[in-house]
């Protein structure tokens, strides 16, 4: 059964910009790693999904389709209104690049986690641990605390 334009429009309107399933997965993963973070700081370019103020680092969790990732899901273009979607995804990609450059200019480091990467949570966890730079144990020891 083929969707009508009205049905497709209703589906697309329902897509959320924050608190998405991929974002929630990354939040849970990072929290279990022992890191604490802030969400969607409006004073930073792009309103990063996770902000680690003490580390001056941010994480964006991007949907492959919406941000033009080069994976199979990101390479799909809807058949209906294809020109509009190509333009929208291109604008999103350009805005993402501009936001990353602005963050870097302000002294922030950023990581982008793509929706498709969440198929392998262990790899995402390893990548985030490397990006965030040190373990919870090292953070506590650097503050003069002991961990058991």
Report what the structure shows:
The chain has 148 residues and is α+β, with helices and mostly antiparallel strands. It contains six helices and four strands. The protein has helices at 5-13, 21-32, 64-67, 82-105, 121-132, 136-142, and strands at residues 38-39, 50-52, 57-62, 109-114. Strands 1-2-3-4 form a four-stranded mixed beta sheet, sandwiched between helices. A hairpin with a 4-residue loop joins β2 and β3. It is globular and about 50 Å long. Mean pLDDT is 86; it is low at 137-142.
Explain briefly what this protein structure is:
With 148 residues, the chain is an alpha+beta fold. It has six helices and four strands; from the N terminus they run H-H-E-E-E-H-H-E-H-H.
Q: What tags apply to this protein structure?
A:
single chain, 148 residues, alpha+beta, 4-stranded mixed beta sheet, 46% helix, globular
Record the SSE blueprint.
Layout: H1 5-13, H2 21-32, E1 38-39, E2 50-52, E3 57-62, H3 64-67, H4 82-105, E4 109-114, H5 121-132, H6 136-142
Parallel strand pairs: 3-4
Antiparallel strand pairs: 1-2, 2-3
List low-pLDDT spans.
Answer: 137-142
Globally, the shape reads globular
With strands numbered from the N-terminus, the spatial order across the biggest sheet is 1-2-3-4
**Number of helical regions:** 6
Helix/strand/pairing category: alpha+beta
Rg over CA atoms: 18 Å
Strand content: 5-15%
Largest sheet: 4 strands, mixed
Cα distance spanning the termini: 59 Å
Q: In sequence order, what are the helices and strands, one letter per element?
A: HHEEEHHEHH
Helical amount:
40-55%
Average pLDDT value?
86
């Amino acid at each position: 059964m083929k969707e009508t334009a009205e049905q497709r429009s209703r589906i697309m309107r329902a897509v959320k910009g924050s608190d998405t399933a991929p974002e929630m997965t990354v939040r849970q993963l990072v929290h279990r790693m022992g890191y604490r973070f802030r969400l969607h700081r409006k004073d930073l370019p792009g309103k990063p999904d996770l902000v680690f103020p003490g580390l001056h680092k941010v994480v964006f969790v991007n949907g492959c389709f919406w941000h033009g990732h080069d994976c199979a899901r990101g390479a799909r273009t809807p058949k209906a209104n294809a020109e509009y979607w190509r333009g929208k995804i291109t604008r999103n990609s350009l805005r993402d690049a501009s936001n990353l450059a602005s963050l870097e200019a302000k002294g922030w480091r950023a990581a982008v986690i793509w929706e498709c990467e969440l198929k392998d949570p262990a790899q995402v966890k390893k990548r985030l641990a490397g990006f965030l730079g040190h373990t919870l144990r090292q953070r506590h020891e650097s503050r003069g605390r002991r961990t058991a």
